[in-house]
Amino acid sequence: MIRRKDEATVVRKQMFGGAGEAVMRQLLNGDGEMYGKGRVFNHLFLAPGAEIGWHVHHGDGETYYILRGRGEYSDNGRLTTVESGDVTFTDDGEGHSLKAVGDEPLEAIALILYK
Hints:
Blueprint: E1 10-13, E2 22-28, E3 38-46, E4 51-56, E5 60-68, E6 70-75, E7 78-83, E8 87-90, E9 95-101, E10 106-114
Antiparallel strand pairs: 1-2, 2-3, 3-10, 4-9, 5-8, 5-10, 6-7, 6-9
């Protein structure tokens, strides 16, 4: 399978009460394309000031691979700055949030796999 960038589904929505909207280009379409092992494999875009609000994972874990920009990341309530090349992981039962900070958009790959 090859999915060209103009064929991918793009979803725009406010995430978990965060400011602004997240723009997500779905690289794979849910667990049917992930052998039932996960539900999200997205290219994520956050404009400056936009965020994915605080949320806790249940039955899965999420990884962000930061491609571009800077973010304020809450790792179970501990705030830290993330930037290009950084990887975050939120395990089952843990919580996180991500906000684009600075003057440029934040881009990341988001992957959610079932536990």
